[in-house]
Amino acid sequence: MADTLIQKHEKMASKQNEVVRKRYTTQYSQVDYKHGQIRMLNYFIYALLWIYFILSVVYLWIIFVSKSSSEYTFRYKMFVLVGLLLFPYIITPLEMFLMRMLTFIVETVIGNVYTRPDYDYVIDRSYVPTLFSY
Length: 134
Hints:
Order of helices and strands: HHH
Shape: elongated
Mean pLDDT: 79
Helix content: over 70%
Distance between the termini: 73 Å
Number of domains: 2
Structural class: mainly alpha
Largest sheet: none
Number of strands: 0
Low-confidence stretches: none
Radius of gyration: 26 Å
């Protein structure tokens, strides 16, 4: 009986210690801060995707349905349609490649190439579209 009571108290104390540790240590605070930043960036990206979608629909409506749609050739309409559909898939890898290359150059010039443990600045060519690779 006394052993189970001691075990219950130890279990309760360890839970309380864990709660206090999570609440007052900077390590968990930093993780919560980073999660908040990522959440805000996700909301921002979501909003930008909706803006892109709405602007694309408006432009497609202008060139396909509006009164001035006869001014545009069929070839132009198809080019715009395909371009608007493929743009998010092409721009994202190019953007990631350019940002990583810029970070790599800046880190190399500053001299922090081997001091950062995360290797986030290394150029990753897997983001580059491989349209013409054999």
